[in-house]
Design goal:
heterotrimer, A mainly alpha (321), B alpha/beta (355), C mainly alpha (319), A: MetI-like fold, 12 helices, 68% helix, elongated, C: mainly alpha, MetI-like fold, 2 domains, two-stranded antiparallel sheet, flat
Chain lengths: 321, 355, 319
């Protein structure tokens, strides 16, 4: 081995070392994932469906105004038959009416607002909590980790629905309580994932490098480690939204979520259970809305996962692109 | 020879000790095994190291994988807390300083890491990685920071226009340049290089070593250069310390160490390394060490090298040799061996046990 | 191994203690008057005072806490004033229903989920695989109560209209009374709980099978000349089943504490219905008792999973 070539020539050679690339700006892993998502037909399709649902939810008051049917307005004469039976889909009531003669279409649209709101807010809260606690547990090992991890284990091993019931029996049902309950029973799984990731990432030399240049704990946690655990977190968050939506609708269905007369899909389906023999539309439309929404989010979550980790197995889509 | 100072005795470069390590010990507690584990066991990664680093020199630190050299590097830069012993920077003992009081010293002592992949955060742009020392210490904001980062990139031979790229877009050698730029950002006095080239191709190794030498002249840096490859340290170092199982077994000027090794372990290492100059290989004596490297959890009694040493006598089993100057030497070197090799002595002497 | 088990048991005990404490705190430190709530709205002042004394609510908090824990430890979950029965009696009535529901459902979802998952993973990208994943997506996205309603609407009501009365719409017949009717009444609830839960098992089995079948040792086994069938079932499935076992234990444990939604939809008088009724009547002792019981089931299920897991894992390592 000879080390003799003059240093300057070597340095000059090194400057040419990178293959001549025309773009100076590097593509971040986020951009790469986004590009992959954009080329994924399933992802584009499910995002389109989600956008449509969001749009309809936002426009619910406009639709209500155009139809002249408020979400809680009861049409006892036009909306109910002489025997008090709900009216089926027709030109006045596109999706038919419910047991109180209310417009099912308008209520389904208003229900979307609650579902999306609770789904996104509760998942967001759960992710923020889970990330902070998971980061702290993984980064400060030792006693902090033991306490936080055991706490996560406890939360994860609670039978959550019955606990939710117990909590609601104490606090009374409301939108806020629903969001809090859902977030409380969801953050621990995020925390566990984040903690696991942090445990492996904090052993990397770049964390030592950050310490050696004088970075403090907070800076290392949030500037150096967090960006490296964000991908699995985002994937999990996408998958958490449909779970939260199902959770919310279940609480509403059981009468311990958002209370009637507020239109939620869970409430509508709960009310419809006494009427499925005479009014299939009363079950079908809120049910379809709920199912389409959760399916779209689950599909999107699967695609997001795939975009960040193209080597993994897809859960729901057996097709390669 | 690439180094300007090569040939001169290192003791004449500058004699002032910049860093002083006194009996540095780092033990890692092991998970106790079994329900009723009696006493806790420790991995004795660094087990009593004393040495000094002089201003402006390059001190090589060599040893096999697992001998504790990287741990020692992290003890010096206070990435690890010492179990005992002291590290002094100039006249200040920095081994027990709180994180806040340590800050000014952190700036004077920086580190270049072994793994060009692991040591750069893959999710951050190169510019932001190199600017990390500024950001972490609240120095040089905004445009000034960017200018400084680009100066640093230029200094280490990177194209400053690649400021916004991600580490993944660079080769291993370029990544080490990025790591070096980050280490130099705060204008440190000492740079601890933990096997900075061992992960690189041989041709790239030369570039990085030459760059290090160039920067040392330009910036008046002091290096601690860690490697397991003797040929690499030879070209980079003024003095070399050889480590074995958490201890320093021999320390000497580079040329002295290569031409007249005193410790049998040094000799074995030298004979195992491929040499560019066949003249230096004396009568093709290749010493193959027998046995495994003993576990640093339960190091051997007496001299730690004795189970593998062809010269070991019964004294070596019981008495731990001290790192000291032997009377066969004049000048500045020390060896921890009861039966050091004389000049040109072969490894298997008919030594009689002194009764 | 023993040490591991002891640790898990201790952890389970701590979880139960925490749950008990949380419940105690929730209900006894909460600002409302427990005695009045328990007594019901129409109760006289004397009744309230009697209940307060009976419950020991006039004693210091710590004493109350101690006696609460002590009673719970001995299986005394208190007295339901609204039902004029001990909570354990109520639980004794509901548990067989819930257990029947969960047992049958569990067998079904395990069979459906694992076999579909195995078929999908052994024929990747085939029509079979696509239908399996579509099935999984559909039922994974489906809330239990919605599926229950749909099954009622289609399998009960539509068939009923066309004169086929295979599936009753609601009700429960005890196994000891008439096994045929027991099964007939539980068919729709079983199907509901099984389809929704099986979706997860399809994903889990398919995913871990695909992972395992890609492993080196499986390829080695194939290369050694073992038949495909043998490799898949002897080697692949065994390794792939570990996550399934974990999930199964947790699901069964959680549902035993009350398959609340399914019982609600089909009007089954199990523990889930019990808690819903207790909720509407503000029957606190019953709610507390059920929360403790449900947590105990989950803790025990986790323990069983841990034991099974270590056994399975040892086998995998040995073979």
């Amino acid at each position: 081995m000879t080390l003799t070539p003059p240093a300057t020539a070597e340095a000059a050679a090194a400057r040419v070392e990178p293959a001549a690339v025309d773009t100076i700006e590097g593509r971040s892993p986020w951009q790469l994932a986004f590009v992959r998502l954009r080329h994924d037909r399933v992802a584009v399709g499910s995002s389109a469906v989600i956008c449509l649902i969001v749009l309809l939810a936002v426009l619910a008051p406009v639709v209500a105004h155009l139809l002249g049917h408020g979400p809680n307005q009861q049409f006892r004469t036009t909306g109910l038959s002489a025997e008090g039976i709900p009216v089926g889909p027709g030109s006045t009531f596109l999706f038919g009416t419910d047991d109180l003669g209310r417009d099912v279409l308008v209520r389904v649209l208003y229900g979307a607002r609650i579902s999306l709101l609770v789904g996104v807010v509760a998942s967001g809260l759960a992710v923020v909590l889970g990330v902070i606690i998971g980061l702290a547990a993984g980064y400060f090992s030792g006693a902090v980790d033991t306490v936080l991890s055991r706490f996560m284990d406890v939360v994860l091993s609670l039978p959550y629905l019955i606990f939710a019931i117990a909590l609601v029996s104490l606090l009374g049902p409301s939108l806020m309580v629903s969001v809090a309950v859902i977030a409380f029973f969801s953050w621990a799984s995020v925390g566990r994932i984040v903690r696991g990731q942090v445990l492996s990432i904090k052993e990397k030399e770049f964390v030592e490098a950050a310490r050696s240049v004088g970075a403090g704990h907070l800076r290392i946690m949030f500037v150096d480690i967090l960006p490296n655990v964000l991908a699995p977190t985002i994937v999990y968050a996408t998958m958490l939204i449909p779970l939260s939506i199902v959770f919310e609708s279940t609480l509403s269905f059981l009468g311990i979520g958002v209370l009637p007369p507020t239109a939620t899909w869970g409430n509508m389906l709960s009310e419809s259970i006494a009427y499925y023999r005479v009014a299939w539309w009363f079950v079908a439309f809120p049910g379809l809305a709920l199912l389409i929404t959760t399916m779209a989010f689950n599909l999107l979550g699967d695609c997001v996962r795939d975009a960040f980790d193209p080597r993994g197995n897809r859960l729901f889509v057996a097709v390669e692109d | 020879m690439t180094r300007q100072v090569a040939g001169e005795p290192a003791s004449q470069v500058v004699a002032e000790p910049l860093l002083q390590l006194t009996d540095v010990v780092k033990h890692f507690p092991l998970r106790s095994s079994g329900m009723l584990a009696g006493k806790r066991e420790y991995l004795r990664a660094v087990d009593g190291v004393s040495l000094e680093v002089r201003r402006g020199e390059t001190l090589g630190l060599v040893g096999e994988t697992g001998c504790g050299k990287s741990t020692l590097a992290r003890c010096i830069t206070r990435l690890y807390e010492l179990t005992s012993g002291t590290v002094s920077f100039g006249s200040a003992d920095i081994s027990r300083l709180s994180a806040r009081r340590l800050r000014p010293y952190r700036r004077k002592m920086q580190m270049v890491f072994q793994d060009p992949y692991g040591s750069l955060n893959p999710r951050r742009r190169v510019g932001s990685i190199i600017a990390d020392p500024f950001a972490a210490n609240g120095l040089a904001k905004g445009a000034e920071r960017k200018r400084k980062v680009q100066e640093l990139m230029e200094l280490v031979g990177l194209n400053p226009e690649h400021y916004n790229r991600f580490p993944a877009e660079f080769s291993g050698g370029q990544r080490q340049r990025i790591g070096l730029a980050r280490a130099l950002a705060l204008r440190p006095e000492v740079v601890v290089c933990d096997e900075p080239v061992s992960a690189l191709d041989v041709s790239i190794q030369a570039q990085i070593i030459n760059l290090l030498a160039e920067l040392q002249d330009k910036l008046g840096l002091t290096y601690i250069f860690i490697a397991h490859d003797l040929s690499v340290v030879r070209h980079a170092s003024d003095r070399i310390a050889v480590m074995y199982l958490g201890r320093i077994v021999e320390i000497a000027d580079t040329e002295d160490l290569f031409t007249r090794p005193r410790h049998p372990y040094t000799k074995a290492l030298l004979s195992a390394a491929p040499t560019p100059d066949p003249d230096l290989v004396n009568d093709a004596e290749r010493i193959v060490l027998t046995g495994e490297v003993p576990s640093p959890v339960r190091p051997p009694s007496g001299c730690r090298f004795h189970p593998r040493c062809p010269r070991a006598q019964s004294r070596c089993h019981v008495e731990d040799p001290v790192l000291e100057s032997k009377n066969i030497d004049e000048g500045d070197r020390a060896v921890a061996c009861h039966f050091p090799l004389a000049d040109g002595e072969s490894m298997m002497p008919e030594l009689k046990e002194p009764s | 191994m023993l040490r591991f088990l002891v640790r898990r048991i201790l952890f389970g005990a701590v979880v139960l203690w925490l749950v008990a404490t949380a419940v105690f705190a929730m209900y006894f430190i909460a600002p409302h008057d427990v005695a009045r709530t328990l007594a019901g709205r129409q109760a006289s002042a004397e009744t309230v005072a009697a209940i307060r004394h009976n419950l020991g609510l006039d004693r210091p908090l710590l004493v109350q806490y101690g006696s609460f824990l002590w009673k719970a430890l001995h299986g005394n979950l208190g007295y339901s004033y609204t039902n004029s029965q001990p909570v354990t009696t109520l639980i004794g009535q509901g548990l067989p229903v819930t257990a029947s529901l969960v047992a049958g459902g569990a067998i079904l979802w395990l069979v459906i989920g694992v076999s579909t998952g195995v078929l999908a993973s052994t024929h990747p990208r085939s029509v079979m695989d696509r239908s399996a994943t579509a099935f999984s997506l559909f039922f994974y996205s489906m809330p239990t109560f919605l599926l229950g309603e749909v099954l009622l609407l289609v399998l009960f009501f539509r068939l009923h209209l066309s004169g086929i009365d295979w599936f009753p719409g609601a009700g429960y017949v005890a196994l000891t009374e008439n096994p045929m009717e027991w099964a007939r009444h539980l068919l729709l609830p079983w199907l509901t709980i099984a389809l929704v839960t099986a979706a997860t098992y399809v994903r889990l089995t398919r995913g871990s099978m695909l992972d395992v079948l890609g492993e080196d040792y499986i390829r080695t086994a194939r290369a050694k000349g073992l038949s495909r069938r043998r490799v898949i079932y002897r080697h692949g499935l065994r390794a792939a089943l570990t996550p399934v076992v974990t999930q199964f234990g947790i699901d069964v444990g959680t549902l035993l504490g009350g398959a609340i939604v399914t019982e609600n939809v089909f009007g089954l008088p199990g523990l889930g219905e019990l808690v819903m009724t207790a909720l509407s009547k503000q029957d606190l002792p019953t709610i507390i008792g059920l929360v403790l019981l449900a947590s105990a089931f989950v803790v025990v299920a986790n323990l069983v999973v841990d034991i099974l897991y270590s056994v399975l894992d040892a086998r995998v390592r040995l073979s």
